[in-house]
Amino acid sequence: MRIIHVADSYSPDVGGIERQVEALALAQRADGHDVSIITAVNKDGAEDGGLDVHRGLRTRWLTIAFPSLNHSMVAEVLDRGDVDVVHAHFTVASPIAIYVARAASRRGIPVAVTVHSVWWKVAAAHRFVSSVFFGPSLMRVVYSGVSTMIARHIKRVYPRCGDVSVVPNLVDTQWWAPAAPSMHRAGDPDFRVVLVGRLKKRKHIDEFIEVMSRVKAKVPAGATVSVSIVGAGPRRDDLEQQIEALGLSDWVHLLGLQTPEQIRDLLHESDLFVAPSRQEAFGIAALEARSAGVPVLGYNFTGLADFVQSGVEGLLVDDADDMVDSLAKLLVDAERVEQLKASTRARRPAVTHDDAMLATYEFYARARRELRGRSARTRRR
Predict the structure, then answer these.
(1) Buried (b) or exposed (e) across 7-22, using 16+ Cβ within 10 A?
(2) What are the pLDDT digits (tens) for 92-129?
(3) Which letter does DSSP use for residue 185 in this model?
(4) What percentage of the chain exceeds 90 in pLDDT?
(5) N or C: which end of the chain has fewer CB within 10 A?
(6) Architecture in CATH for domain 173-350
(7) How far apart are CA 130 and CA 124, in angstroms?
């Protein structure tokens, strides 16, 4: 197949959608497909890893590109031979992705849209971007979400969009799997908690630190807990000040950026992974931890519910109060934690790399089947 991915954000920008588009394109190229990428990101020294990447003009407002400035580039890519499917990756506001999806739809090219963000709370913003940049006409596309929760959100925003598929993110679950039994047991000599994520407001790491402050007040004095927060971002200074102000310097440690190998080693000797974001569309880091045999603590209304069975592979809670209570109980119940670790290691993850690739190709087949009605493709430059 000739596949074109389009995403407003892409490498060298750092984030989940950037990693996913690149990983998917590389996997599809390895499968023998002709793969191209269109993105609004144009930065000096950007490495494309041998992929066919078409970058937009530098003109952007904040992170928002102006699609009309990239009209010629988009037309050249879409009109360069027959295209089997355009895979558009949407977040909250995705003008380039929407523009390319509409341009492809007008040409009769099947368009498969995957939504990577929690949408229903920002439905008005998405509709605004679509209407202001592109007018009221509808695109002929099929939709998917990266999780069951996101698929439900899409149906809320566009109730007449038809079926919504679930196309999970790619995670090499086998690479993260432990190769040997853990040398560490919960509480011997400390209880080890890991959190991996960018230090940005929407990851709610500040709320998790507040949770840990409340947990510390509930457990016996002298309990030894080590919380390792892996990641970098603009909120590091604020988080360091919060940790000190709450008296958590002996518990909570900001490790900064770590390599995947370092994170894997850290997970293999940890007791619990915490995913504190209430806006987790999928939870790539959480699935990596779960694949590494670490129970996951997160919220039951997020994408984690697709691959964390509460009580078996971790705990899914309702709110911050529930998270405080659950953590406080686990910190003093090493036997319960070891049971969760054993059951997590013993079970195959519910979402694997092969599952995600199969779901992607099935989604493309659906797009080609349902959107092939326009046999004559109109070339518009």
Answers:
(1) bbbbbebeebbbbbbb
(2) 778 889 889 999 999 999 999 999 988 765 555 555 55
(3) B
(4) 69
(5) C
(6) 3-Layer(aba) Sandwich (3.40)
(7) 10
pLDDT category, 47, cuts 50, 70, 90?
A: low
Q: Between helices 16-30 and 353-370, what is the axis angle to 10°? A: 80
CB 112 within 8 A of CB 142: yes
> What would the pLDDT profile of 339-357 be if each residue is shown by its tens digit?
999 999 999 999 999 999 9
| Average pLDDT of the segment spanning 234-263 | 96
Categorize the per-residue pLDDT at 40 as very low, low, confident or very high, splitting at 50, 70 and 90: confident
| For the chain, domain boundaries | 2-171+354-370, 173-350
> What is the greatest pairwise CA distance in the chain?
73
| 2-171+354-370 and 173-350 agree in CATH topology | yes
Among 91, 159, 165, smallest CA distance to 125 is for 91
Total residues found in the chain within this entry: 381
Burial 229-245 (b: 16+ CB within 10 A, else e): bbbbbebeeebeebbee
Looking at this protein, which amino acid is placed at residue 353?
A: H
Q: Are 53 and 61 in contact (CB under 8 A)?
A: no
* Residue 181, token pair as written in the block: 């039994």
Pairing outcome for strands 191-196 and 272-274 = parallel
pTM for this predicted structure: 0.90
d(CA 134, CA 143): 19
Q: Name which CATH class applies to 2-171+354-370.
A: alpha beta
CA atoms within 13 A on the CB side of 216: 19
> Among 111, 92, 15, 13, which Cα is nearest to 53's?
13
Do residues 264 and 292 lie in contact, with contact meaning Cβ atoms separated by under 8 Å? Answer: yes
Q: Cα-flanking dihedrals φ and ψ of residue 372, to 5°? A: -85, 5
Q: What is the pLDDT of residue 4?
A: 97
Strands 34-39 and 2-7: parallel
Mean pLDDT of 5-14: 82
Rg of the chain in Å (alpha carbons): 22
